[in-house]
Amino acid sequence: MPNFKFNMDFVPVPKDFIEHIMPTANASYVMVYLYIMLLAQTGKNAGTDEIAKRLGLIESDVINAIKYWNKKGILSGTGENIIIKKSADEELSPENDKKSIEDIASIVDGNPALADLCAIAQEMLGKTLANNDIETLYWFYDQLGFSPEVISMLLEYCVSMDKRSMKYIEKVAITWHENNIITMEDAQAYITRASKRDEFTASLRKLFGISDRNLSKTETLYLETWRDEFKMSADMVGLAYEYCVMAIGKLSFPYINTILKRWAEQGILTIPDAERDHENFRQQNAGGAASGTDSMQSTEGISEIEKQFMAAYNND
Fold it and tell me: What pTM did the predictor assign?
């Protein structure tokens, strides 16, 4: 059995990285991380092209690896200055490496934008900020790189959802950071997308009569597919729901998905086109086995699993 010993010529790798991060990472990404650790330890510089050459990789692999470790919170920066952190958890927590409240108070007093931010935060949150609240706000500015204006948008977004806990706001801030939401434009685009997503979900929950529970993971996935992959509006989903109830007498996410999938494949994205398609199917099947039922009971072009769902529902 081999004997492992340290000497002075080694590169320290964080225990957290080895135990929790490395096992699920791409092997080439791990190679890039270790080589960057070596460069940092020896005080040397190297471009992504040189790193790729030394590791036998293509340059895009190195660039993607750096982006990956940034997202994981292991590295910070993608340009000339790249900072290596001890662990992802330590990087993205205001409890680590934070300045004292005295230091922060001095900085805020000398920065009108930060002073205004604290006043705005107190008004939005409806409370006097405690020291740890001020420390967290400053962490957004100092460590996450958010401007006071972006932090104000962050607070406004969370308050609009009636979320005033600083712990919740901190989680949203970390999400923004991990998704490279840094500028006012980035934040506004994110808020707009989130607002449309929430409106879509809320309207369908109301339509389906789901008010006393959260959507399941499967149901949420259906909604995301209808909205993002099929590009269907809430009105189109509502029409598919109407046809579903007409056919089987109850809500069925798989059945609605079958209808919407067919419409998406045929480029049918408006209510008039969908209604014409539905009527055409009814006329084509008039007098047949599917007469008087929803057009989707025709199983032509439908997967086996969807046929099984329909058979089950139609036999109820």
Answer: 0.53
